[in-house]
Amino acid sequence: MITFDGVSKRYPDGTVALDEVSLECETGRITVFVGTSGGGKTTALRTINRMVDPTAGRVLIDGADVRDRPPAELRRGIGYVIQHAGLFPHRTIVDNIATVPYLLGWDKKKARARALDLMERVGLDTGMARRYPFQLSGGQQQRVGVARALAADPPIMLMDEPFSAVDPVVRAELQDEFLRLQAELEKTIVFVTHDIDEAIRLGDKIAVFRTGGKLVQFDTPEHLLAHPADDFVAEFIGQNRGIRSLSFARAADLRLRDDVVVKETAAGVDAADSEWVLVVDADRRPLGWARTAEITGTPGEAPLSPVGGTFDVATDTVRGALDAAVLSPAGLAVGLGPDGAVAGVAGGADLLAVPTHGGTG
Ligand SMILES: Nc1ncnc2c1ncn2[C@@H]1O[C@H](COP(=O)(O)OP(=O)(O)OP(=O)(O)O)[C@@H](O)[C@H]1O
Fold it and tell me: Molecular function terms in GO for this entry (predicted)?
């Protein structure tokens, strides 16, 4: 656990970069610092590895003040990733990644083996090991930066806008892989970004900073979306926060309808009040949507429109179900159980009836 206890930083020119910030970054979780430019995010991050020392207050790692530890020793247990990766241009990729193991005195063979292993983990082709940074794309360089920070297996990782310099598609890929890696490694991560969407996607907890180094809100993403502390936070989060909240509601909590699901061989269809019915086979696998008015024989004989979107009842969020509903000709999303059989359908009001977890406080 990393604890900020009334941390302030006033630079010699009088700029207040942090103003009595108190918060806790939980062990094994991702804490995101987000906020306006100049809000003090980077300064706050750097107080953890003593690149900046506070002018008041304390930063503690597992209860021990970081100022009681020499910076060099402290930093060996803290990985650091920055924008543009900050790679050494004249070192090969493998040597860049092995930087800290070399510093720790590992033998070359072991350090390089570790570097190659990490290249695979962060999704880099090990064929690139002998290349130099300039021979890699921006996204690949960022992966090298992450691999380098992980090389000595530090329990803590500080990441300052690590994915900001790449295009949105690559960025989304990096975010996905980062989350996958974190699920495996469970590092204590503090992540700075100016992008609220990235914060919501990655953060277990989010700290919102505003100019003057003030911490305005420290909350889960769900709660931040549902209950912004003030107008500043609400404006910072931006539009669509209602829809974005649906990403935190589980599809498993949806009330599913079954009245419009009919077997292909059914004798008669008793859903005259619905314009569409979902036709399923004997195993309840979806075949397509039929217009009720076009069913003259069995449903299976009627013209079928594609199923459109489906969602996984066990694992998807309500946002996924909403997407599926929008893609469905009937405006109804088809929920599938673990065996691929139709568990039921949901649309419109059903999707909005689920409270997001943040909504209850
Ligand atoms: N060495 C320094 N001397 C004086 N002022 C500084 C110094 N470093 C940072 N500042 C100021 O401290 C404030 C906070 O800076 P910081 O870099 O922590 O903000 P940030 O939230 O990370 O901003 P950004 O998103 O733009 O990177 C800013 O006003 C900045 O100009």
Answer: ATP binding
- Cβ–ligand 1 contact at 141 (below 6 Å): no
Contact (CB, 8 A) for 158 and 45: yes
Amino acid at 298: T
Q: For ligand 1, say whether the CB of 53 is within 6 Å of any of its atoms.
A: no
Query: Structure tokens of 346?
Result: 């949901």
User: Ligand 1: does its nearest atom lie under 6 Å from the Cβ of 211?
Assistant: no
- Which has the closest alpha carbon to 289: 351, 321, 331? 331
Tell me the sheet residues that pair with 320: none
Residue 360: pLDDT band (50, 70, 90) is: very low
ipTM for this prediction: 0.94
Distance 304 CA to ligand 1 centre (A): 60
Can you read off the two tokens belonging to residue 171?
Answer: 């960025």
Lowest-confidence pick of 87-96, 224-233, 348-357: 348-357
CA distance 155 to 139: 24
Specify the CATH superfamily of domain 2-248: P-loop containing nucleotide triphosphate hydrolases (3.40.50.300)
- 7 alpha-carbon distance from chain centroid: 27
Is residue 224 helix, strand or coil? helix
Domain with CATH 3.10.580.10 in the chain: 251-349
Asked if the model's pLDDT at residue 359 lies above 50, the reply is no
Query: Which atom of ligand 1 is found nearest the CA of 33?
Result: 21
The CATH superfamily label for domain 251-349 reads CBS-domain (3.10.580.10)
347 lines ligand 1 (CB under 6 A): no
- Per-residue b or e along 159-183, where b marks 16 or more CB atoms closer than 10 Å to that residue's CB: bbbbbbbbeeebbeebbeebeebbe
**Ligand 1 centroid, distance to 16 Cα (angstroms):** 9
Structure letter (DSSP) for residue 250:
B
In one letter, which amino acid is 243?
I
The answer to whether the beta carbons of residues 200 and 208 sit under 8 Å apart is: no
